Amino acid sequence: MTTPPLHVRFLKTTYRLVVDNFLAVVAVAAAVAVLQRTSPEEVLARARVIRPAHWLLALLLAAAVAKLWRMGRPKDVYLVEYGCFRPKPCFRAPFATCREHAHLMPYLVDEDSVSFAIRLLERSGLGEETCVPEAYHYMPPDRSLEASREETELVIFSAVDEVFARSTLRPEDIDVLIVNCSIFTPTPVFADMVVNRYGLRPDLQNVNLSGMGCSAGLVSVGLAKNLLQVARPGTHVLIVSTEILSSQYYVGTERAMLLPNCLFRMGASAMVLSNSPERARYRLTRAVRTVTAARDADYRCVFQEEDDKGITGIRLSKDLATTAGHALKSNIAAFGPLVLPASEQLLVALSFLKRKLLSGRAKVRLYRPDFRTAFDHFCIHAGGRAVIDEVQQGLGLSDDDAEASRMTLHRFGNTSSSSVFYELAYLEAKGMMNKGDRVWMISFGAGFDCNSVAWECVKPAADTDGPWVDCIHRYPVQLPEIAKDI
């Protein structure tokens, strides 16, 4: 992105300072005007006339109004700590291994499908260190229930262990448990698996979400927010987000259904949210969800079904990136007014007015708000190179703004609903996060869903431990240029 001239930047800065602080400017101007007409001695004389009882009554009234305002506003929600599953090197799936395995399974996948999958993988933005579950390393892949349970226990328990290790919380401190996984849903459900492993309290409230795809992690955050705002002070919610791949490996030849095999990788995140600021790392400021399932094209954009040979898989539409862009626009319409400063909202309003007044006489483009005036960091769901490109272009972000998303896709692949927390971990591991910084998380999922969650940093990470601990020194990396993404 080109840097505007110095005088343009000066005018923009002045405009934002004046508009964003309009009330303060008016108050200062009014105070100056009053002081010019009234001497300080006259002000003090008028203050002495007021009886002490009246001063006391005014103070009590102000305190009562402040108390009522605090009682009426929703409770603040905080992120106490989070952790991500860090796969071992033995789970790596470099391109050469993928190519070799594909050729060793000719009765499952034909040569054209192999060539397509390898081309897609090379252009996907994934690197050589992304990991798949142990079941994928067998030939043919182990799609059994037992393999899926083993993957589940590995990724979920590792993430939960990490979040407990990084905080001073114990399992008995958890009041609510929310677990989300889209495709694989065994009986008993994942939530009961976590309760059994950690011996959580019998009065625990637990929820298991499925079928929501990559957006389920932020859907869980929104659900936790609603619960915490009506719960007793000091309530803790444990959220676990994952996608289990073992039983979902597609062994057919439909190209649209081969995409998940190429893009999705193993991963999980766990986090603890609370309505108490004690030990908080981030404060949740906004959470907005948009569902576009009323449109048939959006509803079938990510669709589980059988191919013409009866093989079950997930079909990803070729219009996935475009659908994500449309869903993001609808989401921004609701999210933008809640987070954008007054200066940006005024420019949007003026562009709407201009289009209305010049309707039929001239084509007026609506002003695209600059969300960098509201946020310092962006965590765009690492759903694929095309998805990140679409969001970056739609929001007018720089390559630096999309760095965390692209590097997460390169190192870990598409880890579904947990990807945005790998991106948050990247920002902290690089030392980019400071107290007071604002973060916008954006996720997309089946349905079609778009979710936006805004955080404010209360306390940056004290260390760089986490999923990036053994590789952060190598990032960012230069990604190969692709003329047109698949």
TrEMBL record:
- One Pfam family assigned to this protein is ACP_syn_III_C
Keywords, comma-separated and alphabetical: Acyltransferase, Membrane, Transferase, Transmembrane, Transmembrane helix
Report which superkingdom the organism of origin falls in: Eukaryota
Keyword Amino-acid biosynthesis belongs to the record: no
Q: Name one GO cellular component term.
A: membrane
Q: What is this protein called?
A: 3-ketoacyl-CoA synthase
Q: Which GO terms describe its molecular function?
A: acyltransferase activity, transferring groups other than amino-acyl groups
Q: Where does the signal sequence lie?
A: none
Give the EC number(s) listed in the UniProt record: 2.3.1.-
